Amino acid sequence: MKKDTIIAIFIGFIIGLVAALTLVNFPHLLRKEIGISFKLPSFFSPSTGKQTTTDLKKSDKSENAFEITSPPDQSIQENSKITIKGTVPKNSTLIISTTTQDNIIDATDGSFTQDITLTEGANNFNITSFMDNGITETKRLTLFYTSEKL
To answer: b/e map of 75-105 (b: 16 or more CB within 10 Å)?
Structure first.
């Protein structure tokens, strides 16, 4: 019985190795031998506008910058009701997404405020700015709420 088990494990290992190598090399073989090419799906379509990444340097502030001024990221809050404040380019639209709700804000004057109720523990926010020039920028804000006095 031991000899049969060892042989079965060895054959299974060989079949798995061949399957893994085939899956890894299959796209290359299709492209080389048959001339078929393909691309992996993209999560951001080029038709949705330009995507930007944010650099959180404090020295890069301008009136056209998207910035969350309060509360600071990764901060601990002792009050469940907070106000998120920030600046964006004029005539921008913002979406503040939480796990339970989405808030849409028209920031025609270049600033925004939104009252939010926190839940106990970590609260993650995705704040997305849609600017007039077609640029979309997203920032992530994480706040921690505890009812305990620190």
So the answer is: eeeeeeebebebbbbeebbbebebeeeebeb
**Tens digit of each residue's pLDDT (9 = 90 or more) over 102-113:** 899 998 888 999
Closest by Cα among 69, 109, 105 to 90: 109
Q: What is the mean pLDDT of residues 114-133?
A: 90
d(CA 128, CA 92): 10
pLDDT of residue 53: 47
- CA–CA separation, 73 and 14 (whole Å): 50
Residue in this structure with the two tokens 């190795």, named with its chain if needed: 17
User: What are the strands, taking DSSP E only, across 1-135?
Assistant: 51-52, 67-70, 75-77, 81-87, 92-97, 102-107, 111-117, 121-130
What is the number of helices (H) and of strands (E) in the chain? Answer: 1, 9
Adjacent-strand bridge partners of 124:
142
22: CB partners within 8 A, 6+ apart: none
Nearest one of 89, 55, 86 to 71, comparing CA atoms: 86
pLDDT in tens, 6-19: 999 999 999 999 98
